[in-house]
Fold these 3 entries.
Entry 1:
Amino acid sequence: EVQLVQSGAEVKKPGESLKISCKGSGYSFTSYWIGWVRQMPGKRLEWMGVIYPDDSDTRYMPSFQGQVIISADKSISTAYLQWSSLEASDTAMYYCARQRDKPYFDSWGQGTLVTVSS
Amino acid sequence: EIVLTQSPGTLSLSPGERATLSCRASQSVRSSYLAWYQQKPGQAPRLLIYGASSRATGIPDRFSGSGSGTDFTLTISRLDPEDFAVFYCQQYGSSPWTFGQGTKVEIK
């Protein structure tokens, strides 16, 4: 069974850094792109970017380029999403998801809620 | 960037009724690269349809997708109590991939 298990909820202050994770199992982790999707409270889903864990080839949506870093450690089948300096506007649920041969997502993590508040 | 507009915003129906959800794109979606997802409260989205009309693994055949170009439709032939949720369309024909704002299907 394909599973993506994300790290737990985080509460941070503005200006702090954060790295959340997404561990894949039940499939060949290095053979599929992993994407990150943001869902702000009551808003639509937003594709942030994707990474190919085998060679760490990474693509970002323009509005997220330079705002976050997506990385992966294929030795432990884990992808990451990180911020160097959080803002209140980063408060959202973040999902990782496995991308199929085309950029749609067939398996999703349970989500990581990130709350940024002073 | 392709903007997807879903309608209606909310659909109030009873179990057993037919649901028809619309997704309209601001420009033509290449090769009908459009997917539909279902999201229940507190859960991650679940892939229902890809390629505009292909059902994902394990999805019941009461769910069907159709359309091309700029107009796409998700139809649920007979609503099951477990189907009530928010539904999102997503285009992946042109980067950046974008999602619609969602249609909520609620119990009448």
Entry 2:
Amino acid sequence: AQSVAQPEDQVNVAEGNPLTVKCTYSVSGNPYLFWYVQYPNRGLQFLLKYITGDNLVKGSYGFEAEFNKSQTSFHLKKPSALVSDSALYFCAVSHRDNYGQNFVFGPGTRLSVLP
Amino acid sequence: DAGVIQSPRHEVTEMGQEVTLRCKPISGHDYLFWYRQTMMRGLELLIYFNNNVPIDDSGMPEDRFSAKMPNASFSTLKIQPSEPRDSAVYFCASSLNRGRNEQFFGPGTRLTVL
């Protein structure tokens, strides 16, 4: 079973509008959650992570994410999108299973910010 | 630190040839990962090492693929013989551990097998 899901392949938003990229997970226990961004022809870059504590996590480039345990979600948000935010976004979950610590990336969501 | 270094950045080869991809992780990181990214299959974990020892190679697609980490600062991913379906971007990443610490990715090697 997939541990992390990103239900939208593509998200389009107008520049200046708020953006949300969704992520849900399906693991037991207390997972660690991550967001990465990939710009064209580049490797993945770490944006932010949730380990414990405050459910609202702030990261690079003005992005933030909210951990919601009851909904098993970790959606990525930004109050005002920039054209330069257009990229591929990956959610990832780290959790302990019967085989040790497991780290799984979601399938990715392509964000297009339209001028 | 310069980050994770990969070489070459681009590789074009003919079917049947041997291909070797190289990676230098960030100094002090205990974990090293090899990923493959394609449009069809997305990002796939091929293998990862902990303290130079291969831990999980279940993602290696076939026996044609092999990976080594002779020391803490160098790893190779070899494909022999290469096939057109191996064409992809191959990423190396490293991290302090596999749990709470993020992975740092290299710029990738774009492999084209003709």
Entry 3:
Amino acid sequence: TQLLEQSPQFLSIQEGENLTVYCNSSSVFSSLQWYRQEPGEGPVLLVTVVTGGEVKKLKRLTFQFGDARKDSSLHITAAQPGDTGLYLCAGARGNYQLIWGAGTKLIIKP
Amino acid sequence: DADVTQTPRNRITKTGKRIMLECSQTKGHDRMYWYRQDPGLGLRLIYYSFDVKDINKGEISDGYSVSRQAQAKFSLSLESAIPNQTALYFCATSDFKGYGYTFGSGTRLTVV
């Protein structure tokens, strides 16, 4: 059972376009983490959001945690080829359990 | 040096062989984890350890065992490898809050 649904699973867009990736669940999480993974490497943490409604910005990336702490979104403005990668969200439950989404594979074409 | 180092990076082994994957971290964290990644399935937890004396099974521990030799070292063993254990394996560490994991670069394991 996939407790954390990511959409879309795959996205290919042109450089300069905007995009949004979604992470949805029926479960409440104590925190939500976003990672980016490049081929042949491990996931790298981008951000952790903890409070319902929280918005964090990382240059052209904007992360939002839903008010009910069940969902999150990642918005990229003016995407660049360097943004290409697999984006993973993970929700924390309890003091150790991290529930992972299956990922969104993003390709930014020059 | 990387914060989390995994060895080997790639390994091909035969069915039935015993294999050990090693992980060391320099973050000074107590918590360490082993995951496997399969296309379309995301990351699945194999084992986790909150300190040297605390080791716990994750969601897919069958066929695997672990050893926590020190705060910085956590190894994963496949006692008798089988082809469906072919996957990417990642070691990770986190602080006690678990607000962000640091991953190693992974081991690509192929069982033939």
